[in-house]
Design a protein that fits this description.
This protein has 16 helices and no strands. It is mostly helical and 360 residues long. It has one domain: Amino acid/polyamine transporter I. Helix 3 runs antiparallel to helix 11 (210-236) and helix 4 runs parallel beside helix 16. The two termini are 35 Å apart.
């Protein structure tokens, strides 16, 4: 198959794999502080955001005759505005690419590799990611397809923690709708990176049931996230969940098994494998934006993206810097992405109809 095309299933797995990443380690901390025992309800409700995005991506792709994202931008918004839009996407995905790499490095150094310099983790990770990304979107799709089953295994293991919980930790339910709504807003960031659907949907070879595939990937993510937050509160209570840095790792650390001496380290290592899938998607998005906007070879763009992230990750290794930067920009981008998706899905049929009329 062409390196620049993917199947419908791969499209679904790319969206899912891009959303489910390093953020799982932080899942539930902020929302439980706001929504308390109802944080899992907030997590479920804010899942409407990725669904809206994939619907917009489908409408844009359908009405633009399956045009490439960059070509569609130029036709709809004119070239100067198109450059501004793709630059915003580039900056956001570059920040997320860097913060995910730095965030995962911090988790590893705090759990199983505290004796190593962070760059002993960052450099090999970026080398692997650059190699995968240079192979094209098809390779990204294959990797995401494989890693989906690892994610299922990762979540399935958590089911065995259900007997350790207490019903008192999740009661009373629906205590205050105001807090649930505020908690949903704080959780929106967990569903970010679904915006990769804007770019990848035009790469799908089979256009049938694309909307169904996109929505299904969002529903699977919503179920996984809601289950994890519910399990955290069910086991730890909302007070403890809101106070620890990595609630999921903390909960796993309470597990004692006669087979594995350090279950947290094993689980972190397995999640590290899944993490490579997440940043490979971000690397592709950044490389695509660089390659399209300044018209350089895609493989060169992959190398440039990794080199920039290598140097930028130095400033993101500080948890304070990383959290401050992401919290500052992520909410603005989510609103931008939502507005972009809705406005573009309205403008595309108008602009493309006008283009056809001018040709005729």
């Amino acid at each position: 198959m062409n390196k620049n095309t993917i199947t419908r299933n791969q499209y679904m797995f790319i969206i899912l794999g891009n959303m489910i990443g390093i953020g799982v380690a932080f899942l539930g901390a902020e929302s439980s502080y706001v929504a308390h025992q109802d944080a899992w309800i907030s997590t479920f409700i804010c899942g409407i955001y990725p669904i809206i995005i994939v619907i917009c991506a489908y409408l844009i792709d359908k009405n633009s005759n399956h045009d490439d994202f960059w070509e569609m931008l130029k036709k709809v918004y004119t070239k100067p505005i198109a450059y501004c839009i793709i630059t915003i996407f580039l900056i956001y995905y570059f920040i997320m690419f860097t913060t995910v790499v730095a965030g995962f490095t911090n988790i590893l150094t705090q759990t199983i590799t505290d004796f190593l310099s962070p760059y002993y983790i960052i450099i090999p990770s970026l080398l692997i990611i650059t190699f995968i990304t240079m192979k094209g979107i098809y390779m990204i799709g294959r990797v995401c397809e494989l890693y989906f089953y690892l994610i299922v295994l990762f979540v399935a293991v958590l089911i065995f923690l259900l007997p350790n919980g207490s019903l008192n930790n999740i009661q009373p339910m629906f205590s205050t709708t105001n807090n649930i709504a505020k908690g949903a807003l704080t959780n929106l960031s967990q569903y970010s990176l679904v915006e990769i659907s804007f770019i990848t949907i035009s790469k799908v070879t089979n256009n049938k049931k694309l909307l169904k595939a996109g929505i299904l990937s969002c529903l699977i993510t919503i179920v996984i996230y809601t289950f994890i937050v519910f399990l955290l509160i069910f086991n730890l209570g909302w007070e403890l969940t809101s106070k620890v840095d990595f609630p999921l790792l903390y909960m796993i650390g309470t597990v004692s098994t006669p087979v594995v001496a350090n279950f947290t380290s094993l689980y972190t290592f397995l999640w590290g494998i899944i993490f490579l899938n997440n940043i490979s998607c971000s690397s592709y998005f950044v490389s695509y934006c660089i390659s399209s906007s300044i018209k350089i070879d895609y493989k060169k763009a992959c190398i440039i993206a990794s080199l920039i992230v290598l140097f930028a990750s130095y400033f993101m290794l500080s948890e304070h810097n990383r959290i401050a930067i992401t919290e500052e920009y992520i909410s603005y981008f989510i609103y931008f992405s939502l507005g972009f998706g809705i406005i573009t899905s309205i403008l595309v049929p108008i602009r493309y109809r006008r283009t056809l009329d001018e040709k005729s």
